[in-house]
Amino acid sequence: xxxxxxxxxxxxxxxxxxxxxxxxxxxxxxxxxxxxxxxxxxxxxxxxxxxxxxxxxxxxxxxxxxxxxxxxxxxxxxxxxxxxxxxxxxxxxxxxxxxxxxxxxxxxxxxxxxxxxxxxxxxxxxxxxxxxxxxxxxxxxxxxxxxxxxxxxxxxxxxxxxxxxxxxxxxxxxxxxxxxxxxxxxxxxxxxxxxxxxxxxxxxxxxxxxxxxxxxxxxxxxxxxxxxxxxxxxxxxxxxxxxxxxxxxxxxxxxxxxxxxxxxxxxxxxxxxxxxxxxxxxxxxxxxxxxxxxxxxxxxxxxxxxxxxxxxxxxxxxxxxxxxxxxxxxxxxxxxxxxxxxxxxxxxxxxxxxxxxxxxxxxxxxxxxxxxxxxxxxxxxxxxxxxxxxxxxxxxxxxx
Length: 400
What we know:
Blueprint: H1 7-13, H2 15-18, E1 38-43, H3 47-57, E2 62-68, H4 72-79, E3 86-88, H5 91-95, E4 102-105, H6 112-121, E5 125-129, H7 136-146, E6 154-157, H8 165-174, E7 181-188, H9 204-207, H10 218-235, E8 241-247, E9 260-266, E10 272-278, E11 286-292, E12 295-299, E13 303-308, H11 324-330, E14 335-339, H12 346-360, H13 368-387, E15 391-392, H14 395-398
Parallel strand pairs: 1-2, 1-4, 2-3, 4-5, 5-6, 7-10
Antiparallel strand pairs: 7-11, 8-9, 8-15, 9-10, 11-12, 12-13, 13-14
Helix pairs in contact: 6-7, 7-13, 10-13
């Protein structure tokens, strides 16, 4: 039965009491196993790939047994984290390795689709970094293809779905803590040109592929896709249309992906989700706000705060902790409703869940369907930015 929280009920129950509303399937204990190890092949050992390799190395039950990269320095760094591993410069040879049970794909966006398709055809479980595909047609094609391989686990790297803060926030919203939710405001900003040093023998486009439209979906795909996924999940839906604008207004260095994008997605029921991503300022770099008729929840990377609307005045002592918390609420300062005390990076939870899905055969929580919806939303946003038109979700995007 739905439980509605008034301000007074929230304050009387206490922040600590509400923060106990957890979803057990997200606890590490429930997704962890000490069975025989799953043998991982890592394709793409750049900055993100090497980070994934380090994470996998720390998860019992997962072993990296092969790495693939075209840059020798990347490949050598990855091989140091393998267990008696093999090295490859052609990913197809890695896929033919019968010792590999599953692959982790951390390659440039334009390579996601062909590599994922080949991995599925090779009967490998797949963990694919976000965004799932470069364009809408690829997202639809990959989703259709996976219907033919029901026993394979396919997980997309939107790791925040697996972070314990978000299921708690979803529970709060469902229980009416902040009333009717009508708006989301998200930003993912950096002060960075995205440029990396180009090794001798390679081109700028090979190394700095994020800067070029033929290889990347820009800031929406590389950054804001995470928050698009979270809003999709919190609303149990996908956008119906989007308007957007963006350009290159700071890093005038020959790049073709925009260094700033501002998009507004419309969701069923008139819910609006604004997305901002810029590369010239990182004040409050990662932030999402959920605006409801009775309050606002603000989420950073590892905390969430509640701000109540000033409609009602009743206040109560929170768990007997003097009047400090109620005073903060009364002043509009907000109170913490989640603080991460573990310091565990969300990717750890996502990769543990990938392991458990392979063991159990249970479909990944963030799978090709949820990944498709995010990918299409990203592509619609980029198209709206390019054309200045309102871009609409088509029925065939859902009927796959």
